Hints:
The protein is built from five helices and no strands. The protein is an all-alpha fold.
Amino acid sequence: MKWTFFIQQKIKTALILSGVMILIIGSTFLVRRSVQQIGASFASIYADRLIPATELLYLNENFYSKRIALERHLLTENSGSPEAVKSVLRAYDRRIDSLVTEFEKSYLTTLEASQLQSFRKSAALYSQFEQRILELDRQQNRQAGNNLFVGEAGIAFQQTIKGLNDLVNLQTKVGSELLKESRGEVTHVYVLTAVQISLAVALGLIVMGLISNSRVMNRDKQPFHLN
């Protein structure tokens, strides 16, 4: 009977050990997945938030530079032909198109994609006003061009800049959400690590208990020649 009880205890202990090992292995995979998600989140913050935010800054700079170039032409006598200014504005437009193309390659939320399309429309409208202003200047009607520059074109320019600012704000908001998710994953890793440590301690205690029980059984066991 004693040996039967001992075998049953061994089976129970083996099952407990197996369960603890399975839990440790399972928590290890969960920790690895959480670490991978943290790495992906930080990579996304860099590639899809930080770099695009820099591109938006350059977009803003190019739009203001383009606006200033046209304003300087309109306010300065003998500032060159409208064709020369048009060439300068086209150079800025190429830079802007290149920056927008790079920005589109990053991950965009649905709201960001919608805002980008709105920005494109505002930028296209402002470019049309620029062409009309230069056409008026070519027709020797610079005053009308100035009025358009300050009036409707100025409103279109402000709408374009507002679209850029809205994109920047969205970038910041989404980046903050990614950072919050990363912090949540870090907390998850801390919890899983604590569980692993607890399981390792439990496993050690079980092994020590097995060793102790084995020694007791060896002392209780008598040689057959003494019976």
